[in-house]
Write a structure and sequence with these properties.
about 325 residues; mainly alpha; two-stranded antiparallel ribbon; 13 helices; 2 strands; disordered N terminus; binds 3-hydroxybutanoyl-coenzyme A
Length: about 325
């Protein structure tokens, strides 16, 4: 999974200066850009790249938790997890639809995912080994997703911004169900609390990586912020997430696995230890613990579901033909 090369990171476009200035004036005036509005090709490609990667993340993200639906400890937990995993599938569909408004087809996006050409979030290449991981994923992974996505509700592209409003409402339920699992485990037996700590140890650093590479390495941030697709840098959002999560961990009586984590009075936030960016890039480039398994599963599901798509298309064509002949008969 390497760069999809959809847009030069420098944001170079073919449009003339007057066109670009007029477009930027609309962005600066906080006007939403809609599918039929004129837009620079770079803006369109940046959105297709980001929205499709986001959609793929939602779809692949169903796998680690989906594995636990049949092993949830109670009926209530099973119902909540089932609903959450279904929500993620729904988010993928809203996002594919938002990307389609930019002229890319669902088939093309799926093909990019299945061939390994497209990226999806690094976090979903880590395994969910215990029930406590389901708590940690809801608390931290969905928590990080919300921190990033609340801002996307103000993205300059209308269909993406509107999809994010609903998605964020659902993500906030996901975050709470995860944190509630962590509360139950931390109030339980010693072994249960150890499971919770172990899940935090394994998911903390990968959750910080979800926000993307740091300032100097984030090739798209600058242009995306000028176009108000992004509103904050990856590092700023990561810091906000850390500041929100530390008190939550303290409330649970758990320890964040970072010996260098320290409150910094001057910046009114936490300083944190070094993130292992080599590990991040290894996972992004396809060499994480579960990359191969995730794609293999996705390809199998795509093959197994082919007959459903074909049947639905055949049914739609039959209905359209029937409606057309009824119209001709009535004329
Ligand atoms: N995993 C995989 N790839 C990542 C990544 C991550 N965590 N973070 C960055 N990258 C990739 C980028 O996609 C880009 O690759 P490309 O050039 O091939 O497209 C490259 O690393 C450089 O990163 P940049 O910072 O320059 O890229 P962006 O400006 O696009 O910023 C982002 C990255 C912050 C993830 C941004 O794309 C974004 O906000 N995306 C929308 C949100 C999203 O996709 N979240 C994924 C998680 S969704 C989820 O968690 C589901 C929920 O149910 C839990």
């Amino acid at each position: 999974m390497y760069s999809q090369g959809l847009i030069g990171a420098d944001g170079k476009t073919h449009e003339d200066a007057a066109f670009l200035a007029a477009f930027q004036a609309r962005i600066d005036a906080e006007q939403k850009i809609e599918p039929n509005d004129p837009m620079p090709e770079g803006y369109r490609k940046t959105l297709v790249r980001q929205i499709s990667q986001h959609a793929h993340s939602e779809i692949i993200g169903m796998q680690p938790e989906g594995n636990w639906i049949s092993r949830a400890p109670t009926l209530r937990r099973k119902a909540a997890l089932l609903a959450k995993v279904q929500d993620e599938g729904g988010h993928g569909l809203y996002l594919y639809s938002a990307a389609e408004t930019l002229g890319v087809s669902r088939e093309e996006m799926t093909e990019q995912l299945l061939s390994g050409a497209a990226k999806y979030s690094s976090i979903f290449n880590y395994p969910a080994l215990t029930w406590a991981d389901i708590g940690a994923i809801g608390w931290l992974v969905d928590g990080a997703a919300i921190m990033n996505q609340i801002v996307l509700c103000r993205c300059s592209y209308g269909p993406y911004a509107r999809a994010m409003i609903r998605i964020c409402k659902e993500e906030s339920f996901h975050q709470r169900q995860g944190y509630e699992i962590m509360i139950a485990l931390c109030n339980g037996s010693e072994e249960q609390k150890e499971l919770a700590q172990d899940a935090l140890n394994r998911f903390w650093w990968p959750s910080l990586m979800m926000f993307g590479p740091p300032e100097g390495e984030s090739v798209h941030s600058n242009q995306s912020m000028i176009w108000k697709i992004k509103r904050f840098s990856n590092d700023d959002l990561r810091d906000k997430f850390i500041n929100a999560s530390v008190p939550q961990a303290e409330k649970l009586g758990l320890t964040i696995p970072d010996p260098d984590l320290k409150w910094n009075e001057a910046k009114q936030g936490y300083d944190h230890g070094e993130i292992d960016w080599d590990e991040f890039w290894r996972v992004v480039k396809g060499d994480g613990i579960c990359n191969r398994e995730r794609l293999k599963n996705r390809r199998r599901v795509d093959r197994d579901g082919a007959w459903v798509r074909e049947a639905a298309m055949a049914h739609a064509q039959k209905r359209a033909a029937r409606t057309a002949s009824a119209r001709i008969a009535a004329e």
